[in-house]
Q: What sequence folds into this?
């Protein structure tokens, strides 16, 4: 009974509007949800324009504030800022939300960033609306938002890195590299323009998808059959283009020639008789299986392979 | 190279390495092409810049940055190497010997940027708790950009303005017969590295037959090229033609596998 009286007394006392009164020992705000009550704290509606703003701001800030301790969390916060301001009218609630998103976060920009931005906007909106209606128990709590982000950031980054920077980018480069080789500036500008435009567009679609579907969006992306077959198709195209690139641009041949009982031999001629293009193929496959076995040890492979090439070139084997 | 030219190239590199042009900087940073384009524009020799940068691109195929750090910075490497080649009117192959070490050094600079940004993070925390949106945006977007410019502009300027002529002169004296042969061997061979990395990133060994298909189609096209070039002058199968065939194969593959999955 004494507790009830106490609760009533607290409820009637005006809530402090000074953030210092809500700090825990880590300096994090733990706001009283009642700060969200009242007509003046009613969250505004989130529009498609807001989502575009979120996506554009994240797309722009992406790796500008990159640091070892928080990675790209500040850029993620920067993206969400306009939406958080619309949802949390009370400065203490807003400060709490800013702090929440400044915690460690790292993902890939388009697949991870787009989808997770959209999902986070939908979760924050639900939370703010519930709190405003006084439904503290039904509101999504901040640790749930945090866990959703952390759970999704790794897997989506893995997909995004290998598709965007690993495949799509190099398909565009492979497509226009010939123009660069012939001295045309278009060979440099077109891969850049195509990649930037394509990723901007589908990144925004991911943001919208994340917002409308919520957490289901990520499952759809990671487990859905449609995306899987698109990834496979991109893999086919990527490997196909690499095959063309390998035969076109890897120029390993041997100048070794000798004379035997009055007859001239040259090694390259013999190799071409067995299988044309065998040397570049061996080099590419050798390195490919090195990476498959040893993992992505790029610096090691580059230094080692360069040393081999220098030696073989200097002694006249290549 | 004039002061203004060196400064313009340094500013471009800083804009890319600070990532202040947004996610669009991905291709600018991972690929040497755009840096080569800017150098060609500033130094007024686009054809040489492009043939040089195409050579460097081949060794930097497959550069991806899981977690943000890369073993090399192609943009920095390219700015320096292409400038050096143009200043000394060197052979494009010489660019490889400059790009590889410069790119490795560049990756340390990029990591230095992460440390500098840690300082901005403490300021962000201070703004966040007060819900100071303006201050927060300032320390997230503006200040790290300034840090990067302070880091990259002077270093790149000195390297280009003072370094490029020296390196260029040095390369010119050593780039005679045997050394040039070794350089072009390295350039032509290292292309295999980038292609192998890209294949590893795609990662699906079951799809390797498509690599072999394309490889031998192109080997055959190469043989045709030599024959036809002898008769008709220059001839080669345009890349867009291969890309169309690649897309068709990918679409057909996707349709067939989708059906068998059902």
A:
């Amino acid at each position: 009974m004494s507790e009830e009286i106490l609760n009533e007394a607290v409820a009637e006392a005006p809530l402090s509007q000074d953030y210092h009164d809500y700090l825990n020992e880590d300096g994090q705000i733990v706001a009283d949800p009642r700060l969200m009550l009242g007509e003046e704290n009613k969250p505004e509606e989130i529009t498609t324009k807001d989502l575009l703003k979120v996506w554009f701001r994240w797309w722009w800030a992406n790796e500008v504030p990159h640091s070892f301790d928080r990675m790209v969390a500040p850029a993620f916060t920067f993206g969400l800022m306009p939406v958080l301001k619309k949802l949390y009218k009370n400065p203490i609630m807003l400060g709490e939300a800013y702090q929440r998103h400044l915690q460690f976060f790292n993902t890939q920009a388009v697949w991870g960033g787009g989808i997770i931005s959209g999902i986070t906007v939908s979760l924050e909106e639900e939370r703010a609306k519930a709190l405003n209606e006084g439904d503290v128990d039904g509101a999504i709590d901040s640790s749930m938002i945090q866990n959703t982000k952390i759970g999704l950031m790794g897997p989506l980054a893995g997909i995004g890195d290998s598709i965007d920077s690993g495949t799509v980018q190099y398909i565009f480069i492979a497509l226009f590299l010939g123009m660069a080789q012939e001295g045309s500036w278009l060979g440099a500008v077109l891969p850049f323009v195509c990649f930037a435009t394509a990723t901007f567009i589908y990144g925004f679609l991911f943001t919208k998808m994340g917002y409308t579907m919520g957490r289901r969006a990520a499952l759809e992306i990671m487990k859905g059959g449609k995306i899987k077959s698109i990834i496979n198709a991109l893999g086919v195209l990527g490997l196909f283009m690499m095959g063309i690139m390998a035969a076109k641009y890897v120029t390993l041949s041997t100048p070794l020639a000798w004379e035997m009982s009055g007859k001239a031999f040259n090694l390259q001629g013999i190799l071409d008789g067995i299988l044309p293009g065998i040397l570049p193929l061996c080099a590419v496959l050798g390195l490919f299986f090195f990476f498959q076995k040893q993992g992505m040890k790029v610096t090691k492979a580059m230094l080692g392979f360069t040393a081999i090439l220098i030696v073989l070139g200097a002694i006249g084997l290549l | 190279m004039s002061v203004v030219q060196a400064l313009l190239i340094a500013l471009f590199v800083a804009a890319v390495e600070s990532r202040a042009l947004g996610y669009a900087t991905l291709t600018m940073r991972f690929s040497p092409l755009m840096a080569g384009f800017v150098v060609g524009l500033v130094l007024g020799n686009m054809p040489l810049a492009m043939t040089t940068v195409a050579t460097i691109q081949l060794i930097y195929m497959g550069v991806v940055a899981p977690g943000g750090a890369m073993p090399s910075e192609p943009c920095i490497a390219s700015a320096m190497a292409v400038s050096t080649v143009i200043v000394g009117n060197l052979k494009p192959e010489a660019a490889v010997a400059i790009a590889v070490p410069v790119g490795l050094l560049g990756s340390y600079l990029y990591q230095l940027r992460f440390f500098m940004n840690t300082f901005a993070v403490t300021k962000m925390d201070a703004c966040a708790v007060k819900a100071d949106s303006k201050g927060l945006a300032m320390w997230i977007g503006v200040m790290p950009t300034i840090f990067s410019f302070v880091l990259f502009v002077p270093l790149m300027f000195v390297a280009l303005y003072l370094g490029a002529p020296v390196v260029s002169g040095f390369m010119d004296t050593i780039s005679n017969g045997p050394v040039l042969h070794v350089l072009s061997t390295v350039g032509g061979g290292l292309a295999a590295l980038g292609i192998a990395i890209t294949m590893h990133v795609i990662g699906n060994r079951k799809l390797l037959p498509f690599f072999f298909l394309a490889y031998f189609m192109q080997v055959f096209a190469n043989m045709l090229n030599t024959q036809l070039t002898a008769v008709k002058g220059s001839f080669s199968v345009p890349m867009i033609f291969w890309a169309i065939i690649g897309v068709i194969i990918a679409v057909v593959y996707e349709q067939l596998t989708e059906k068998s999955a059902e």
Summary: Chain A has a mean pLDDT of 88.
